[in-house]
Design brief:
This protein is mostly helical. It is built from seven helices and no strands.
Length: about 160
């Protein structure tokens, strides 16, 4: 014991106490490890990083263009990219779980467009045509049954 204490530069009593309490110390180390393991959060690593990079780039370009991308649209786009990269449907499934992990990995939050940020291009000919179609569609409805879905709290 004396030579061990001298080699490590500690007192002989410290060496004896360490040897005597070895079992208790090991149990405490295991307990601490288990407690820390429960608190530790793992960063999930993508199985298809190229696919996710392409999807993230597409999402960024869509947001710059002012487009609103729903989770369903994002999952469909992911499947289309997977098909383009020849990833079999059995290997990659764009499920809700995958979508949430993708958002977490890439730190993607929800962006809400309202006010001027949510405005549309009112000079767009396709939009004007659709508005005309909508006006003819709602002609037959009573005005009490027509709602502006941008400003109502109506749930159906």
């Amino acid at each position: 014991m004396t030579s061990i204490a001298r080699d490590f530069g500690v007192g002989e009593k410290t060496t004896r106490n360490t040897k005597k309490n070895t079992v208790a110390m090991k149990a405490r180390i295991v307990q601490t490890y288990e407690e820390q393991r429960k608190k530790t959060k793992r960063i999930s690593i993508s199985q298809f990083p190229e696919l996710e990079q392409c999807l993230f780039d597409w999402l960024g370009a869509s947001r710059v263009a002012g487009l609103t991308i729903s989770p369903c649209m994002l999952k469909h786009r992911a499947r289309a990219i997977a098909d383009a990269q020849n990833i079999p449907e059995d290997d990659f499934v764009s499920s809700n779980g995958w979508y949430h992990r993708f958002r977490k990995r890439w730190d993607i939050g929800a962006t809400f467009l309202y006010g001027e940020g949510g405005e549309v291009d009112k000079d767009d000919p396709v939009l004007l045509e659709k508005i005309c179609q909508l006006e003819t569609l709602i002609e037959n409805y009573n005005y009490d049954n027509i709602y502006n879905m941008d400003e109502t709290g109506l749930f159906y």
